[in-house]
Amino acid sequence: MNQFILVLNGPICSGKSTVVDLLLARHEKLFLASYDTIKWLVSNYSSDKHLAVVTDIVLPLAESAFDKGFSIVADAVTLKTTRERFAELAQRKGVKFIEVNLEAPLPALEERFKKRVEDSIRMGTKISITDMQGMMKIFTRYQENKNFNAPTFDSSILSAERIAAEIENLINLNVYVKS
Question: pLDDT value at position 1?
Fold first, then answer.
């Protein structure tokens, strides 16, 4: 498979991590350029304060992995400017750029978010957004920056396995490529 850059957009709890995990398990030479992973390396992380800093770290890391032969999957991308920077990287490298939205209706996202918070409390794990106000802030940011031209999958209807397969088809068939 030729190298590519895939950006998976979506609001919090839309299933991005689950789909990415499936893609990583099924493909060699795939690198996850994860905002969510890098943010935990920043002391006293706050999205209000550190969003741009973390993005500025993730992009060169992705480029370095790309230069070593990896294709890139970027998740947790909610800002148009970040997507554009990944698209510019793909254009500079002469590879296809695939952008996909992963969504679910707001009530489903709210229910998943409540479960995520409950699970983190029960298991003693750390999450960065812990209240509905924060969840809605991320949801609104996604809605304001969404690419309505990108293929969109509803994770309340389609299984993660089906969505991953559909994304693989987009990668292989080159159905949607942003120029």
Answer: 61
Residue 115 exposed, middle or buried by CB count within 10 Å (0-12, 13-18, 19+): exposed
Burial bucket for residue 6 (CB in 10 Å: 0-12, 13-18, 19+): buried
Q: Where are the domains of the chain?
A: 4-173
Phi and psi at residue 101, in whole multiples of 5°?
Answer: -105, 135
Is pTM beyond 0.85 here?
A: yes
d(Cα 109, Cα 113) in Å, to the nearest integer?
6
Token readout for 115 is: 């479960």
Q: Residues 6-21: what's their mean pLDDT?
A: 94
Domain 4-173 in CATH: superfamily? Answer: P-loop containing nucleotide triphosphate hydrolases (3.40.50.300)
